[in-house]
Design goal:
Pfam families: OTCace, OTCace_N
Number of domains: 2
Number of strands: 9
Strand content: 5-15%
GO biological process, one term: 'de novo' UMP biosynthetic process
Family: Belongs to the aspartate/ornithine carbamoyltransferase superfamily. ATCase family.
Helix content: 25-40%
Pathway: Pyrimidine metabolism; UMP biosynthesis via de novo pathway; (S)-dihydroorotate from bicarbonate: step 2/3
CATH architecture of the largest domain: 3-Layer(aba) Sandwich
EC number: 2.1.3.2
Largest sheet: 5 strands, parallel
Distance between the termini: 14 Å
CATH superfamily of the largest domain: Aspartate/ornithine carbamoyltransferase
Radius of gyration: 19 Å
Bound molecules: phosphoric acid mono(formamide)ester
CATH topology of the largest domain: Rossmann fold
Structural class: alpha/beta
Length: about 300
């Protein structure tokens, strides 16, 4: 595995190996790189979880982390992403984690020897989030084949949904969608049925909620938080209809009382905080995989 750019580029076996390694790291097991390894995290869009959990993963693996602030870099003087990345490679960086507003930004960087990890590309993909979601689901259920997963909300703008729907279908899960019709693309019916939220919550093993991506809405959308919560949100009433062993997931940041009732974020069925914790272990596994030859 030279880079981690999209979920489609990972085989089932590679996914399985990454989940196994994440479980290994979660049991407080360690690994060692024989040479000094250097990482840089280039975040051109805001992030709390992805940025800090990659940094935590890097530190737990003994990787040296360079600091980088786009606003204080030569990007402000017109430097291209390729030239920034090339500079990082030239000064000795082994792996760059990049979050960027442009879909497929990584296509221009594929030829670099330095490993590239996609930390989210516009509305494209979010492979490390997808893998931590898979890890969390596997911890809970132990399988994907036949599992019923409901993905709810701003599906068309969500890179998390985009990565997750493709890979969950490939792993044998059955998918259902709910949310505003205008936030669901016709081609996404390839992956599953779009149904009413009340029907979805009663029938799935995983209720995967998505953040409303206001920053990606080109059109002027009239959004009323209360109406959205009542129509498509996971209210306490709807949570009461969920199956006994069903779980709630959300990649976060959560818009409390929009996608999910405030009281449910840390409830018994919620795995939202576990997802954040698991993010560190899956990112350790990803870093180890792309840096394998340096061990
Ligand atoms: N889930 C996720 O990508 O969160 P951040 O935007 O905080 O990194």
């Amino acid at each position: 595995m030279k880079h981690l750019l999209t979920m489609d580029e990972l085989s089932k076996e590679e996914i399985e190996e990454l989940l196994n390694r994440a479980a290994f790291f979660k049991k407080a097991k360690k690994t060692k790189f024989e040479k000094e390894v250097y990482a840089v995290n280039l975040f051109f869009e805001p992030s709390t979880r992805t940025h800090t959990s990659f940094e935590m993963a890097e530190k737990k693996l003994g990787i040296n982390v360079l600091s980088f602030e786009p606003g204080a870099s030569s990007i402000t003087k017109g430097e291209s992403l390729y030239d920034t990345a090339l500079t990082m490679q030239a000064i000795g960086v082994d792996v760059a984690v990049i979050r960027h507003q442009d879909e497929n930004f990584f296509d221009a960087l594929r030829s670099l020897d330095m490993a590239i990890i996609n930390g989210g590309d516009g509305c494209g993909e979010h492979p490390s989030q997808c893998l931590l979601d898979l890890f969390t689901i596997q911890e809970q259920f132990g399988y994907f084949e036949g599992l019923k997963v409901g993905i709810v909300g701003d599906i068309s703008h969500s890179r998390v949904a985009n990565s997750n729907m493709k890979v969950l279908k490939r792993l044998g899960a059955s998918l259902y969608f709910a949310g505003p019709d205008s936030w669901f693309k016709k081609e996404q019916t390839t992956y599953g049925k779009h149904i009413a939220m009340d029907e979805l919550v009663k029938n799935v093993d995983v209720v995967m909620l998505l953040r409303v991506q206001h920053e990606r809405h080109d059109e002027e959308i009239k959004f009323d938080k209360e109406t959205y919560h009542k129509t498509f949100g996971l209210t306490e009433e709807r949570a009461g209809l969920m199956r006994e062993n069903a779980i709630i997931m959300h990649p976060s940041p959560v818009n409390r009382d929009a996608e999910i009732a405030d009281s449910l974020v840390e409830s018994e069925k919620s795995r939202i905080i576990t997802q954040m914790t698991n993010g560190v272990y899956i990112r350790m596994a990803i870093l180890e995989a792309v840096l394998k030859e340096k061990k």
